[in-house]
Give the backbone structure.
Amino acid sequence: MRPSGPVLSRLTPAWRYGLVGGLASIPLTTGLYWLSETANELSLNMVFIGGLIAGCLAAVRSEHVGAVPVGIRTGVVGCLPGIWLVLDTYLFTATVGGPAWFRTVGLGVVVVSWIVVATLMSIIVGVLGAKVGAWLATQLGRSASAVGR
């Protein structure tokens, strides 16, 4: 039997803070991608900002949640606009000449490679942002362990 109640209340604190940071970064990352001159570059600056927010929230609200799990989750959620570039890759690959099997295999390799690389890069950037956010919260005396002093 599944527990009832709001979905957010059933999430772990790491997922809650990661979702806040990741969802905050998605519209900004998408906007930067859309406004880029060539529309083929993906900036993960906003994933860093989302990780910063999530890491700071985790440090302020919970002393049991580390910056790394929050950053990983922020990166996973924040990489979703990177999947958008897969559509561009697909459209480009569809115009390349060659036998159908060659285009299909090439497209599969490129798409899977892009998804793996974009996700890993986004996770790294999210973790860095969360670590900086947790550090800032500690330096400002706002961490959960500093509140009890």
User: Anything to note?
Assistant: The mean pLDDT is 82. Residues 141 and 147 are 7 Å apart (CA to CA). Residues 12-80+120-147 form one domain.
